Amino acid sequence: MTTSTQVQLVSRPSGWPTAEDFRTVSVDLPDLADGEVRVQNEFTSVDPYMRGRMNDAKSYTPPYALGETMTGGAVGRVVASRSADLPEGTLVVHGLGWRDVAQAPAAQFRPVAEVPGHPNSVHLGILGMTGLTAYVGLTEIAHLREGETVFVSGAAGAVGTAVGQIARLLGAGRVVGSAGSADKVGLLTSRYGYDAAANYKDAPIREQLPALVPDGVDVFFDNVGGDHLEAAIDVFNPHGRAALCGAISGYNATQRPAGPDNLWHLVSKKLTLRGFIVGDHPQVAAEFRERMTGWFAQGDVVYDETVVDGIGNSVDAFLDMMRGANTGKMVVRV
Question: Which domains are assigned to the chain?
Fold first, then answer.
């Protein structure tokens, strides 16, 4: 009998999640049925959107069910197969994270190639959904044009570090970002292609941003919401566009936050603010993979990971990521 260690949600968090909202269980897996595969996960992903799925609220994806194993991105290797499409030894990405062993029909897994010299977790980050999110936001949503100025909130996170580099490769004239520590600000400008960055903990970002963008902002890629969105609206140039990817500043709020006090600029500056979910843009995936594979092979793109060991530490990894303890992609090494 094969067992799988899995993390389940047992209560809906109010405000910040705690360890008591989760449990780790051992699940006996049945024999493989025809067309199924069993995968030993190597890395699983923890991401901000998962906080929203812990609430019992209507959204773009169903909430996690209480008492059932959560899901999320993962990469692993087929260790048993009853599918000719995915023989044993195949490296795959899939959505059955928060567990060490996954078992499901082969159609739920996508084969990927190993990248020499890099951990397989790269398929969860810059070469995977993280990189695709950045690319979709800049191209499909914000329609970045050559020479424009880009502002990125949460710039030292997984998506933010990808956005800065991709914006530069797409011809942005100036790229600025925000992060939560002096070390992260330094990384943005020395490693990730940012021209300037601000530590939003030093002073309100609304006060700091104008000095970083003396000629205004054309594109805002938002991972934070709240005060960062308000600050961007202040400095937008006419016809500015915002790709709203996330609003992590409010994910654990227990009271409804106040809205931006400058929304009238949406009219006066003729702005476009558009939220997006990367899964709604599957037609971009092939183009992204082709371009990112080339950039990656040429050394035009770099990445960092924050790695936590052990599936039993997944909750700690998730909470650390929500608090901003990661640089780049946060992954759990199974």
Answer: 2-124+304-333 (3.90.180.10), 129-279 (3.40.50.720)
